[in-house]
Write a structure and sequence with these properties.
It is found in: Secreted. By secondary structure, the chain is an alpha+beta fold. Helices cover about 20% and strands about 30% of the residues. The chain contains five helices and 14 strands. Strand 11 and strand 12 form a beta hairpin. The N terminus is likely disordered.
Length: about 290
Amino acid sequence: MGDQPSRLYFLSSRWICQSTSEECLLIYSTARRQLQSNRSMNFRGIFIAAMATITAIQAQSNVIPHGKVRPFPQQVPVTDAQKAVLKYKPQLTIEDGCHPYPAVQKDGAIGGGLSWSGPRDGECKGSPLGSQVYARTTWVKDKWAIMYAWYFPKARAPFPVLRFLGHRHGWEYAVVWLDRPNADNSTILGVSLSAAYGWAKESPPPEKYLDGNSLKVAYYYNHIYGNTAVKYTEETGEFQDLITWNQLSDLARDSLSNTDWDETPLNVALLKMPMKDGVFMKKLKSAYPF
């Protein structure tokens, strides 16, 4: 499991710790002892030492087994945009590999994932607490994009060095492109998937891949590229409880954004949470199907 983001912040001229009282006491007392016993040490050295302690503690306290992450309940939509996100929620079929799991819970704890070993669906046939699909929206040129993302505890990237190893954590995503963010008066203009290699784009989407307003997606193992991915399918799938990026708690959104999901050597899997700031728009621009 990779190091997780700390919960120590500098705010209004003082340090704020967001963790359990016992952990915060340990963090503060450790930093204070270092400061008292190393008065000749410069501030940078003290800061690095303290952060190393914090990171080690948080790596243990903020990562929990993937099957114990509690999903966010799906909320009743209020705005037209929220209603549209639910209306066009895709359905997912699992042909091979893990089922989707919630990646993070309200307090910011994330799932530890699984090492790539045993059967491709080993220890990940579905969470007893329920699953999750994440969504985030924005305008791209004159199209309204809804990105939906699923998290998988283990996966395999399309690179030769990883084909026999696989890796912990996986993100797959679909983008539904509308003419406007309105549930009652909008049209699907195109769809995009994070395919086995690059993007699978359709504009307009073939009717065989739609079930009413819902895009039909399959998670599978691609034997040509030797990786896990999603593809279009004609099979009816299942829905997961949806939570939008803005509906997440601050701690959950922070964990999704700051966790290093790519634990492969030199980050060769290029694995990132697709909805985080700095990644989201890049993904949408490369997924643009028009």
